[in-house]
Design goal:
about 0% strand; mainly alpha; 7 helices
C-alpha cells in the first residue's frame, strides 16, 4: 500500500509539472503569435479586460473546488452542489459583464470593447462546466489524464 501511494504521489508531481510547464509554454507562444497578428492597441484592449476577468474568476469558484479536494469523503451531492454553484455564479458574472460592457467601453473610450467584453466573458460559462471534472481528477491524483485532456 505504501509504495502505491508513493508511486501515485511521484507520478502526480511529474504529470502536474508537465502540465504546468506545457500550459505556460503554450500561453507564451500564443501571446507571441497574438502580439504579431494584432496591433498594439488591439492587444492592449484584451489586456484591459484582464482586470475584470480575473476579479470574476476569483468569485466564481470561491475555493469550493479546493475544499472538495481536501475533504476526505465527498458525496455526489457535494460535487453536484459545487457544479451548480459554479454554473450559477458564472452566469451571474457573465450577465454582469454583458450589461456593463457598454460602461466599460465608455470608461476606456473604446466602443469596440463592448463586443469584445461580451465575447471574452463567455469563457466563464464554458469553464464552469469542466470545473468539477477537473476537481475529481485532481482529487484522485490523476494528473496525467487531467493534462492530457487539457482541463485546468
Amino acid at each position: 500500500m505504501g509504495t502505491s501511494v508513493k508511486d501515485s504521489f511521484f507520478k502526480g508531481i511529474f504529470w502536474n509539472a508537465i502540465g504546468k510547464y506545457s500550459h505556460q509554454g503554450i500561453s507564451f507562444v500564443v501571446s507571441i503569435i497574438l502580439s504579431r497578428i494584432l496591433f498594439p492597441a488591439e492587444f492592449g484592449m484584451i489586456a484591459m479586460l484582464t482586470i475584470f476577468t480575473e476579479i470574476a474568476i476569483c468569485f466564481i469558484d470561491s475555493g469550493l473546488s479546493v475544499a472538495l479536494i481536501q475533504k476526505k469523503e465527498c458525496t455526489n451531492k457535494d460535487f453536484s452542489t459545487v457544479f451548480y454553484f459554479n454554473i450559477t455564479v458564472s452566469l451571474i458574472f457573465y450577465l454582469i459583464l454583458f450589461f456593463t460592457a457598454p460602461f466599460i467601453a465608455k470608461f476606456y473610450e473604446l466602443p469596440q470593447l463592448t463586443n469584445i467584453t461580451r465575447l471574452v466573458a463567455l469563457v466563464f460559462l464554458i469553464n464552469s462546466f469542466g470545473t468539477i471534472q477537473s476537481t475529481i481528477l485532481k482529487k484522485n491524483l490523476n494528473f496525467k489524464r487531467l493534462n492530457y485532456y487539457g482541463f485546468k
